[in-house]
Amino acid sequence: MEEIFQLCDEITILRDGQWIATQPLEGLDMDKIIAMMVGRSLNQRFPDRENTPGEVILRAQSHLAAPALHSRCLL
């Protein structure tokens, strides 16, 4: 979405199919645009996530999709 600032002079925000605002880009930043789009302020655009791998729940081995493909193992 960063290219909006390079390509546009004005922005129109829609949320859930409803018009929210039409404003000049001057004075807006990405956080303000996102807040108008989602209806609230976001503290973190990409919050940290914790992921601890657990046991394997699906394992597929030696399956061929087509004769031209070589056997692959998915873990």
From TrEMBL:
It is a peripheral membrane protein. The keyword Translocase applies. It is an enzyme of class 7 (translocase). It is found in: Cell inner membrane. Its main location: membrane. Keywords: ATP-binding, Cell inner membrane, Cell membrane, Membrane, Nucleotide-binding, Repeat, Sugar transport, Translocase, Transport. GO terms for cellular component: plasma membrane. The keyword Cell membrane applies. Its EC number is 7.5.2.11. It catalyses: D-galactose(out) + ATP + H2O = D-galactose(in) + ADP + phosphate + H(+). It comes from the Bacteria. Signal peptide: none annotated. One of its GO terms (molecular function) is ABC-type carbohydrate transporter activity. Belongs to the ABC transporter superfamily. Part of an ABC transporter complex involved in carbohydrate import. Could be involved in ribose, galactose and/or methyl galactoside import. Responsible for energy coupling to the transport system. This is Ribose/galactose/methyl galactoside import ATP-binding protein. It comes from Klebsiella pneumoniae.
